[in-house]
Specification:
The complex is a heterodimer of chains A (81) and B (188). Chain A has 81 residues and is an all-beta fold. Chain A has one domain. Chain A has no helices and 6 strands. In chain A, strands 1, 2, 3, 4 and 5 form a 5-stranded antiparallel β-sheet that branches. The model of chain A has no long low-confidence stretch (mean pLDDT 90). Chain B has 188 residues and is of the alpha+beta class. The mean pLDDT of chain B is 71. Helices cover 48% and strands 17% of the residues of chain B. In chain B, strands 2-3 form a two-stranded antiparallel ribbon. The chains are: A mainly beta (81), B alpha+beta (188). Chains A and B meet through strand 1, strand 4, strand 5 and strand 6 of A and strand 1, strand 3, strand 4 and strand 5 of B.
């Protein structure tokens, strides 16, 4: 991600809709962007335990103020727990 | 294909703060039991009881936390230290009441709540579990996954999101996935 003139925090958010349940989110608050920054990796994890299954996934950018952000090479990884 | 990302870890400054808080808490309550209480009450009985209670609860809390993945992030230390402090001071307060010493230190038992509270705060800001295996790439987002949004525009292989204030800008959507019992890691 790269940013320009972000006046307050901006961060990645991943929403998972659990089959038969509600939608849950994971916000990269600890890795938020502020101001103008060059290209850097940002990441956020989402933990799916037991039999819960994510049926639909949405990726968002959350802005708490004005600004511009460029994103590229967005990729989803998975690891067993 | 990019190389797989590292396992998410606590940021270094949080890690340092966690150790500092845990050490401070430990020194504080051990100091109270081993030095302050004996010198103020003139008896080793109360401090010995409190120290024993504190160490017992610490050991028990630590044992429980080592059975969970969250121990990796230092949250356990704060909870254990806080519980030990509480146990020690509560036992001291009970002993104090029973003995009628009227020692006021026990009224500050709530100070030790700060450590478990800090632990819970850490648990909100850091991922609680370590994945047991390496990450594998499962999807690379492309323009086919984009969600139409007025705040977004495609610029070559990039998406530009622009806003003049508070906004949630949807970028991508994946339907009919079936991820379960795993850690998903989104990287951009």
């Amino acid at each position: 991600m790269q940013s320009k003139g972000v006046t307050s925090k901006a961060y990645l958010e991943m929403d998972c809709t659990i089959a038969g349940k509600d939608t849950y989110f994971s916000k990269a608050l600890q890795d938020a962007v502020v101001g103008t920054q060059n290209w850097r990796w940002h990441q956020t994890p989402f933990y799916l335990r037991g039999t819960e299954a994510c049926a639909e996934l949405q990726v968002k950018l959350v802005f708490e103020g004005a600004g511009q952000i460029w994103v590229k090479d967005v990729e989803l990884f998975r690891a067993p727990i | 294909m990019n190389e797989a990302p590292a396992i998410p870890t606590l940021r270094p400054e949080w890690h340092a703060a966690s150790w500092f808080g845990g050490t401070l808490g430990s020194v504080l309550w051990i100091g109270i039991y081993a030095v302050v209480i004996p010198s103020e009450t003139g008896s080793l009985l109360y401090s010995s009881l409190c120290l024993a209670a504190g160490l017992t609860v610490t050991g028990f809390a630590w044992y429980l936390w080592t059975k969970q993945d969250s121990v990796a992030y230092g949250v356990a230390m704060h909870v254990a230290v806080g519980m030990a402090g509480l146990a020690g001071l509560v036992s001291f307060a009970l002993a104090d009441l029973a003995g009628g010493v009227g020692y006021p230190l026990a009224t500050y038992w709530w100070v030790f709540l700060l450590f478990p509270l800090l632990g819970f705060q850490l648990s909100r800001t850091a991922p609680l579990a370590c994945p047991k295996g390496p990450f594998e790439s499962v999807h690379r987002f492309s323009s086919a996954d984009t969600v139409p949004a007025s705040a977004c525009s495609l610029e070559g292989n990039m998406i530009r999101a622009s806003t003049s204030g508070l906004a949630e800008v949807p970028l991508f959507q994946l339907k009919n996935v079936n991820f379960r019992n795993c850690v998903l890691l989104l990287r951009a």
